């Protein structure tokens, strides 16, 4: 009997996600992640949702006419709200027509890639980085090309990126503030990247797009400020997710914006391409209730001051126990170095005592651990003695 065939592209996507899928499956099928576990793994919320979020969803779910849940690509007020907010905060004029409301950050990135990639086109993305970049690139029929950040301070390595550009390069991904290191790339680096991409585009006779992945743009600490690559490079597409600022990743609301400095003719072509990308990807527009609620949700954000305080407490406690880790400038991750080379084994040691972290090998950070600060303060305090005990055990 013939063997049922599956898509070779989906097989490739599966392999891109293999490490994180296998880890998640082991955790979910095990019995260790009980109600008292300290969950620092995937960034799921560990505190009640924002009251304003709940109220907005309830209010906008109440139908006012028979068409309330009918087909609609975009809610006009949602697009206007995003365009106005971008214009106010970024010093450039964004047009509602250049805003696509998407099913979260996943949907924004997918729409961008599907809109510009030919089969086999190369997409350069940072390593370490979000573990789904490779999968999303292959899902859009592209070829992922990982380029390492500087190992010293996790800066962009412009020379390595330049060396990785070929005639097939179509997109370069920049994620700032950066998941997983918390680095905010300075303007000088973004300007240098822009100059290099402009020259490479001219050399190869086609535009190389910059995809600015910015879901943590509002989660910055102290005197730091988010700097968008779109301010340096005209042919930038900006992807954003409300899942981080609202700490509601399962609601799947985000947007994709075309750079305000992009030539009008190019924006006109991209508007239609992004729209059709969402149609062809399985009607990937955000749901109508979420789109109607967006103007209310745009005003909301988790308590960044409390998040910064939690960051400081964890950094202080981990360093006091002997862990080596940088202080992130934004996001909600910490990346302490594992005290033994096998980060998977050390993560398992922590899990045995009820503290669950993401092994660095799963997040393209071998030899480190990734800790998500979406855990609550009680979890933080309960976990610190476990971290201290584990490092003493391996040092003994």
Automatic annotation (TrEMBL):
Annotated keywords: Aminotransferase, Transferase
Residue span(s) of domain Aminotransferase class I/classII large: 45-379
EC number(s) reported in the record: 2.6.1.-
InterPro entries per record: Aminotransferase_I/II_large (IPR004839), NHTrfase_class1_PyrdxlP-BS (IPR004838), PyrdxlP-dep_Trfase (IPR015424), PyrdxlP-dep_Trfase_major (IPR015421)
Top-tier EC class: transferase
UniProt protein name: Aminotransferase
SUPFAM superfamilies hit by this protein: PLP-dependent transferases
Record bears the keyword Zinc: no
Gene behind the chain: aspC_2
Record Pfam families: Aminotran_1_2
PANTHER family per record: ASPARTATE AMINOTRANSFERASE YHDR-RELATED
GO molecular function: pyridoxal phosphate binding; transaminase activity
Family: Belongs to the class-I pyridoxal-phosphate-dependent aminotransferase family.
Keyword match GTP-binding: no
CDD domains: AAT_like
Gene3D superfamilies: Type I PLP-dependent aspartate aminotransferase-like (Major domain)
Cofactor: pyridoxal 5'-phosphate
